[in-house]
Write a structure and sequence with these properties.
The chain has two domains: about 5-280, 3-Layer(aba) Sandwich (Rossmann fold); about 295-405. It contains 13 helices and 16 strands. It has helices spanning about 15-25, 60-70, 95-100, 105-110, 140-145, 180-185, 185-195, 230-240, 250-260, 285-290, 305-325, 370-385, 385-405; strands spanning about 5-10, 40-45, 75-80, 115, 120-125, 135-140, 145-150, 155, 160-165, 200-210, 220-230, 270-275, 295-300, 330-335, 350, 365.
């Protein structure tokens, strides 16, 4: 793996040429794919969405990557993913996602096996030096692959600011096992997962991206690019930068880099191909859209505020309102990160260890990040409401979502 990352432009609609050029500029597949290699191509097929939506990896990119891999004559090639299992929002059928994005047709055209990792055999493996997830179930297809090529789409996210090559690996957690990553803390769980099934190569479908909540067509962003490299950390740094998102705010990216003795900053990346600045756009993160839906709450983010706290805050704040405490949220100030004093009085909740020095909060909870239930407790304390009611509402709503989603895990 190297710190070289290539950006290429799709010219005259020729996605295949752009993928091939990006991989060539980034150093090629010679060092990772041999005639004995068992290759898993892992696109983002989280939910049924149409081609060019920016919400899932487009079939043209998957086909181009698979075609390039096949030219190396490896022992086997599988295209595989497992759709979203559902947490606060519903889960989906993997096969329906494959069909909607055109990946089913692309795999059939190339004669490559398409595998639903939600129904795959799995093995529970230990995670050495785990942050939050000491054991995790992983699809056997991923464990038995010598080479994993992560092929995400370029998109912003609600909970992690960006959803790129590392987060894309959640798809190898079969079915409802994915919920475990939310239960223990998503960003750190991604790091634990990728420490045992790390991508060997990453190719981002940046032909069309998605900002905000990833709604189609209103959140799509035409980019016309491919990003490739042999190290997913550096590829994700470049992907974040293309969206105008500061990589330092993406907790799982920073923790993964620290674990491997790297620095997840654009300054250390060797960029080749198209100049990044010529193509950088500003994507609204999903959290910014989420925040706009709570005009009654002031969220103050310091420089150190990252996706760790915002991830847990999304659910905590949502369920305070769903529990019937919308009126009590009026005038609430939530502080995350090392924010300067904004002079807020009354209802002030300081969340996370970075906010420990914020003066005069009504409620404070430490942790990096705090657990979801701890955030609920702090918000409830600041607003003067019953946290037990909020937690019961959360549990009931999730059970309803999960009961409806579970049958889809087999499809």
């Amino acid at each position: 793996m190297t710190n070289r990352v290539a950006i290429t432009r799709v010219k005259d609609g020729n996605v295949d040429a752009a993928v091939r050029e990006a991989v060539r500029l980034a150093g090629g597949f010679d060092d990772i794919i041999t005639s004995r290699s068992r290759v898993l191509i892992k696109p983002n097929q989280g939910r049924p969405m149409p081609r060019h939506s920016g919400a899932v990896t487009d079939a043209d990119v998957v086909e181009a990557v698979a075609g390039l891999v096949l030219q190396r004559n490896p022992a086997s090639v599988i295209i595989g993913d497992g759709a979203i299992a559902g947490w606060d929002l519903p889960g989906f059928s993997t096969q329906e996602a494959f069909d909607a994005s055109g990946v089913t047709a692309a795999a059939r055209k190339l004669g490559v096996e398409l595998r639903n990792l939600n129904t795959d055999r799995w093995e529970e493996v230990a995670v050495p030096g785990a942050l939050v997830m000491d054991r995790v179930r992983i699809a056997r297809t991923a464990l038995e692959s010598d080479v994993i090529i992560s092929v995400p789409v370029l998109k912003a996210a609600v909970r992690t600011y960006a959803s790129l090559s590392l987060k894309n690996m959640k798809g190898v957690m079969p079915g409802v096992e994915k919920r475990k990553s939310h239960r223990v803390g998503l960003d750190k769980a991604i790091v634990d997962l990728c420490s045992v099934v790390r991508p060997s190569y990453a190719i981002i479908d940046a032909t069309v991206g998605a900002e905000g909540m990833g709604q189609y067509p209103e959140d799509t962003k035409a980019m016309g690019l491919i990003v490739a490299g042999s190290d997913a950390v550096y590829v994700d740094v470049v992907g974040a930068a293309l969206m105008g998102i500061d990589p330092s705010r993406i907790m799982h990216l920073q923790y993964m880099a620290q674990r491997e003795g790297k620095v997840a900053e654009l300054a250390v990346v060797e960029l080749v191909g198209e100049p990044l600045e010529a193509h950088r756009q500003v994507f609204l993160t999903g959290f910014e859209v989420f925040q706009s839906r709570f005009p009654e709450v002031t969220i103050v983010r310091g420089e150190s505020a990252c996706s760790g706290c915002t991830n847990e805050l999304v659910s905590a704040l949502s369920f305070v309102k769903k529990a019937g405490y919308g009126e009590q949220l009026q005038g609430l100030t939530v502080v995350i990160g090392d924010a300067a004093d904004v002079g807020a009085t009354g209802k002030v909740a300081a969340l996370g260890k970075c906010a420990a020095d914020y003066p005069r909060p009504s409620a404070f909870v430490g942790g990096c990040p705090p657990k979801e239930a701890e955030m609920v407790q702090a918000l409830a304390e600041a607003c003067g409401v019953d946290p037990a009611v909020v937690l019961a509402t959360m549990a009931g709503a999730r059970k309803t979502v999960w009961d409806a989603s579970d049958p889809l895990m087999g499809r």
